[in-house]
Please model this.
Amino acid sequence: MRFDKAGILFSSLVGVGRTRRFGLVQNELSKHVLPPIPFIGFKGKTGIVPIENEIEQSVWESSPPLSADDQFFPFYFVGSDGVKYLLPYEPMININGKNTLIRRNVAKAKTKGGREVGGSIKERWNQGDYDITITGVLIGSLLTGNVEDCFPREDFEKLRDFMTTPKSLKVYCEPLQLLGINQIVIEDFSFPFTKGENVQAYEIKCYSDFDYKLLLDIDD
Model:
């Protein structure tokens, strides 16, 4: 449509939706009145153009997983074939350690002032296992949709296979490396209810595991 000053004023008064009707009236008047005086302030086809408002696919896409370089403490599971599996989103890791003590309560000599010495006698001690809790989340590529489209099924199955392995697992994470932990044994794991169709939380409770030499040679 082409508007002039008069056309803008006219259209603002009667509305664009009614201009087609006035155009028909103007055509009929031009056949009987000389000279024809156009009272519609624009020329051209009239009509309402439908607005296409399609939602882009990217609106429903979630944030992509972070690479190891973008994570502060990336956590890896190492499979039996030596292939590393990186947890796609950096988990929270809690580590608790303890020492196992053997204490004896025995009678002790008094001090020079005649005062009894309190406390127990620690005969021996050794270091216990590290209790490790790994809490994280798996996120699908789409925010909503069918289970096949939005649920993080591939990562879920990979993590499930590691958690149900009946043997110690090799892991790699910098805080664990600082404590000398290269292997863990999983005791408990859970997939709690999580809000969001494409989100699944998990929690893993495990212990540190070390290789021990139980049979000693004579030279040892």
Remarks:
- The chain has two domains: 2-43, 60-99+128-209.
- The radius of gyration is 38 Å.
- The mean pLDDT is 81.
- Helices lie at 5-14, 19-29, 147-150, 153-163, 174-178.
